[in-house]
Structure formats: structure tokens, C-alpha cells
Prior knowledge:
GO molecular function, one term: DNA-binding transcription factor activity
Shape: globular
CATH architecture of the largest domain: Sandwich
Organism: Corallococcus macrosporus DSM 14697
Radius of gyration: 28 Å
Number of helices: 23
GO cellular component, one term: cytosol
Domain Cyclic nucleotide-binding: 270-389
CATH class of the largest domain: Mainly Beta
Number of strands: 8
Protein name: Cyclic nucleotide-binding protein
Amino acid sequence: MSESAGGQGEGSGRLRTPVEGALRAVQSLVALEDTDRAAQLYEELGDAQRERIRHEAEQGPAKERRGFVEVLRRARDFLGAARLMDGHGEDATAADLYFQSGRYMAAAESYLRAGDALRAAAAFERGGALERALAVYQELGARDAMAQCLVRLERPFEAAELYRELGQAHAEVEALGGVRPEDPRFVDAILRTCQLLDAEGFTHRALAVLADAVSSSEAARGAPALVTEKARLLRRMGMEAEAEAMLIRRAGGVSAPAANGYRFLKAIPIFGELSLEDMKDLYRLARQVIIAPGAVLLEKGAPGVGLFVLMDGSVDVFSGSEEDARHLNTLGPGAYLGEISLVQDGPVSAHVRARTSVRALRISRTDFERYVDTHEAAALRIYRLFTQNLAGRVRALST
């Protein structure tokens, strides 16, 4: 056979090895465990040759197939590697490879076969199969994840009921905000929202929600329960019945409510490019916590536990846990701590203790990892901004 048909032409820059020769060459390199050269050869072949090599590898013995899997992984042919692993009792590895290739449905099915139902559900969710994800989360009893799925399925009232069972009042309010005026449960949603906001100290905001509901829904306008609730809220503010009538006439003119945790969370730089929908999903993951004076939020040297966003109270930041540790700073509402632990493993760099009683939002690393697994666009934006911020800090330290 001529060189132009069977070898690499001078200056061609592309390998033109016959299929059999290419296959044998890759097999030889695999046998020698020279994965890098095998991957390079595989990358230089045409689509048809690569397909033939994958077919032959699939028929080969298990050890050789695993070697080919590593070659394909190194060449970033994650889908080809996944298909080589599929059906050979190595479902967990195949699932990871399917996930890397963007074949989320195939990844989910493989995770199910491997017995990893939680990752299967996340893959179903990532792939848009929300009903399948919801069914798996239900079997697992993963109620937080169920609630998130219900929100994305536009079933906000059901999501709110789950958040109520979980005691996550702020997430319940956010879910109830998705109940539309035409929903027969709209009045119940508004009533519950007002009660929750008032209990959290946002009575002005509760009145604003109620006034907006009355102006946008005929059912809400004539609901006795909402009239009673409005009277109760006005009494809480020390206003008379005449003020109630004026408030109805001025629906939408209520002064702006006090700031809540959502505004503080949204202001964190690494979340600065999230869409409204992604930001709301992240906020629903946050849990409100109350921390007693003197309690430790972050312990220097310990593994990071996630993000804290301060809403009320203040904390002291020290260089260490020792009695004579240097006091570095005092932080109050709007400050945030531990955001690095969301995206990077490593020990905590400072010791943080509550100076007063503190009310904060907390997002654990586990919940955040599930969030980025199911929100691809948000994950890309978060990691990009994190990298930029980290680079900025490094430059600041070096000047």
C-alpha cells in the first residue's frame, strides 16, 4: 500500500492510518499502558475510524476495555467511554461519564442501576425530566429536593406545603408567591403569606401583598378571610378602620418593606450574574438559623460548613480560637461568611463567634452542590465570578 494511503503524508498534519492499523496501534499502546499516546492517536483519527475502534474495544476482554475507557476519557470522548462501560456491571462509572458528556437521561438511568438514586434524581432534573426526578425524590423522602422540583414544575402550592412541614418559612413565602390569581387556592396562599410575613416582622410587606392580591383578583377582593386578616394587620400597626379603607384605595402605594435575607443573598458578588429564577431557587435552599450570643459560627482550621448571611445581630472575627487571639473585625447585617467553602475544599481561615443573638441564612455545601448540579448556567456564572474575585484578591495581596 502506498504511503499516501497507509501512512502519514509529509506535512499533511493528519494521520491517515488504515482502520486495522490504527486499531492495532491503539491496542498496543493500551497494552503498554501508554494512555497519553493512545489518546493522542485516537484524537487524530476520523469519526469512522474512532467508531470502529470503539466497536472493537467493546468486544474485547474486560481489562482491555477498561484501558480503552481511560484512553477515551483522556481524549475527552466521554460519551464513547460511557458506552464502553455501559452494560458491563460498572454503572456508576458509566453514569459519571454520561453526565460529563451531557447525556443526563442516560446518566440518570445508569445511576439508578448503580443504586445511587439521589444522583439519578439530580441527573433527571438537570435533563429536564422533572416528573421523573420528583418521583425519585419522593421515594427517597428528600423533601427539600421535592419542593424545588415542584416549584420548577409550576406547582407552587404543593411546594409551599412541603416547606411548611420543613419549617422553612422564607422558602414557603417564596413558593406561595408563585400561586397565580386563577388558582382556586390563591386566597389560601395569600392568607398564609401574610401570616408568615407578619410573624417575621414584615407587617408592611404583608399588607402590600394583601393589597396587591385584592387589586388583581376578584376572588381575593370578596374573600372574608382576607378582610379579617387585613383588619388584624392594621391593628398590629396601630391604625384605625379609616386607615384600612384608605389602604384599599391606595393598593400598591404601601411603603417599601424592610430588607430581608433575599436582598442580602443577592448582593453577594459570586451570585451577581444569576437570573431571577436561579436566584429564587438558591434562596429557597437557604435555611434561617438563630445563633445564640457567644456561639461559634466558624471554627478556624475546621472544614468549611457553607455560607452564612447575617440578617440581624453581629459577629466578631478573630485570628484564632485562643483566648488571646487578635480581634480582626465585627460584622453585622448584610455581611456574609464562608462563601469560599461552597466552591472550594479547605479549612476555615478565621474564627467567628456571635457577639449578639444572630439571625442568619445558611446554605450548606451539600445543598449548594445539588444546586449547581441542577442549574448548569448558574454554576458557570458562579464559578467564573468566584475565579475573578479570587484573582483580584491575589493581585491585591501581591501589590
